[in-house]
Amino acid sequence: MAGFVFSDKPITIDHGEGVYLVSDRGKKYLDLGASYACTPTGHCHPQVVEAVTEQAEKLLYVQGSYPVAARNELHEKLGALGPGDVSNVWLCNSGTEANEAALKFARSATGGTKIVATKRAFHGRTMGTLSATWKPKYRKPFEPLLEDVEFVTYGDSEELAEAIDDETAAFIAEPIQGEGGIHPAPEGYLETAREITEETGTALIFDEIQTGVGRTGDLWACEGYGVTPDILTSAKGIASGLPLGATLCADWIAEEAGPHGSTFSGNPVVCAAANATLEVIVDEDLPGQAAEIGSYIREELEASDLPIRGVRGKGLMIGIGVKRANRALRDLALEHQVLALPAGRTVLRLLPPLTLEREHADEALEALHAVLAPEVEAEAE
Ligand SMILES: Cc1ncc(COP(=O)(O)O)c(C=O)c1O
Question: How much is the average pLDDT of 27-51?
Fold first, then answer.
């Protein structure tokens, strides 16, 4: 298991300040990955820190069968913020658990077994979610996985119509594929998925673990597409970095969800962090900020003469096609103190905190120019 991002020159992080991480040597790094998209409100947002501290002093844990104010509040908040009638909330501790629950609930509610997933998808690493994850590198060592899973080409409505039938429990997809390289759903694809799943009684699951809580310019990416799923999963940034996953379900799923549980489901400290996170996201209109700053970054990159192979994404979920992502990441970090993420070998992935402002975006663009421009010269030689 790798311990460091840059193994030849590891950076040890001491603390976080908004959109920056600070190393033990006092060097400030612009965190354009929001640490795997987990800090939409920035590092250590004071409102989140205060809520966590207050809750920690009162009660660290109580079993899930005893109601507790922080958890009740989160159920209510998420229920109200869920798209359409997707307002029944199951809480857990990670993205993979949220998706695992979604797949279980879909099977239980529909009585079907088959799961349709998309090529390039990433849904997690438990045996169930790994079965719906595409990359052979993640799957191979653990096979055999769930049998009844079929992969379809992301964006191909005809293939989807052929794959889904009355026996299909669920179609699971990311509205914008993240790990797979930042691929937004093509126009009409999610609408078609909604129509087909409605006709066959299949549960439509949107995995919004990377796209959710404001990142794409809407609170949930599916709202931007105008399509409401039966199940929506969230995790990563929902509690500003504390471990929380949520599976939001429509009534017909919740009524037949079947027995499911987890000891740490709805831990009060984590719920307090999520309550504060959601308040900050809504009150500070972070989805609006993500839309504005995201457009600015994409437009600047598109208008530049950098040797990039396209810019994809929405809001502050941006993929930049480059020759060698790992080399660019290393140079960004070590020479310019800017941290980003890869999505495969040739895509630089930006998932910054949604609190990113214009001056931070300019700092990022300057670093990207410095790192990517030499490739033009190298190619011209
Ligand atoms: C779209 C998507 N689904 C699921 C997961 C799994 O989440 P976790 O790592 O919290 O289990 C991820 C993580 O990267 C993800 O991006």
Answer: 97
pLDDT over 50 (residue 364)? yes
State which amino acid sits at residue 328: A
The DSSP result for 276-306, as a single string, is HHHHHHHHTTHHHHHHHHHHHHHHHHHHS--
Residue 2 has pLDDT above 50, yes or no: no
Residue 187 DSSP label: T
Whether the link from the prior residue into 144 is cis, omega within 30° of 0, is yes
For residues 175-195, give the mean pLDDT. 98
**291 vs 360: CA distance, rounded Å:** 15
Task: Look at residue 55 and tell me whether its pLDDT is greater than 80.
Answer: yes
Question: Which residues, at least 6 apart from 107, have a Cβ–Cβ distance to it below 8 Å?
Answer: 113, 169, 170, 258
pLDDT score of 381:
46
Q: DSSP readout, 20-86?
A: EEEETTS-EEEETTHHHHT-TT-BT-HHHHHHHHHHHHH-S---TTS--HHHHHHHHHHHHHSSTT-
**Closest-CA residue to 333 (of 344, 322, 342):** 342
Amino acid in position 364:
A
Nearest-atom number in ligand 1 for the CA of 97 is 11
Whole-number average pLDDT of the chain: 95
From the CA of 124, how far away is ligand 1's center (Å)? 5
Q: How far is the CA of 37 from the centre of ligand 1 (A)?
A: 10
Encoding tokens for residue 70? 């922080």
Ligand 1 centroid to Cα of residue 101, in Å, is 13
CA separation for the pair 77, 137 (Å, rounded):
38
SS3 content of the chain, % helix, strand, coil (to 5): 40, 20, 40
Sheet holding 88-92, edge to edge: 88-92, 245-249, 231-234, 203-207, 168-173, 114-118, 149-152
Q: Cβ(250)–Cβ(106) under 8 Å?
A: no
Non-local (6+) Cβ contacts of 125 within 8 A are 96, 133, 138
